[in-house]
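hey so u asked for the seq, here:
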Amino acid sequence: MVGYTTESGTQDGRITCTAKGWCPVPRCYSELHHGTYSEAMQEVELNGTLWYWCEQGYRTAAGNASEAALCLAHGWALTPSCTNCSSPPVIKNGGVLGPLLASYKNGSWVEYGCQHYHFLDGPSTVYCDHGNWTEPPTCLEPCTLNVTDMDSNNLTLKWRREELIFLHGDLIEFECKQGYGFLQTAIPSPGRTQCDHGRLKYPKCVIQGKAIFFFNCIFN
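ran it, structure tokens below
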């Protein structure tokens, strides 16, 4: 059975259930990396416990520096282990600032940054927490104005600027070309829109009708 060893120290063998219990008594075993046991023996009899300590920078599965492992009928209640973190997770349109390591000790942290014009959403600092990294941030795409879309909607930018790129969450204000006006709407600022995850909705301008006046003329 996984998690046990025979009296000879092998994982294969046979035990017998007698009136007094198992014969021989099964024992839990486990190799421990980056840690030490309280006793030289790594084997514990059924229902016995064994304390172990992790090296600095490593933690048990429960997140402690030391732990008591309990040997149950199905094996260890919590297998003795000492873990740290592998390389931090990769994110789209961004990455870790500074050099990457192959492994990180518990409590270590790294800082993320985004590519130019991308908006960092979430905490920039990520921590190694008992073998796992905390949730990394995401880099939200910017909005790039399309001149063709602006022309088809008869729009121009209200404020002059050299670049047509806006960050996520930025408000963009348009105005209509001469002779055009915004459609009738209850929105207070019909020419304003917002960049949302790299997408934006263009307002629409329509041609303004010309008023025609009729005069009654009297001729003598």
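The helical segments are 147-152. The domain at 4-76 is CATH 2.10.70.10 (Complement Module; domain 1).
lmk if thats what u needed
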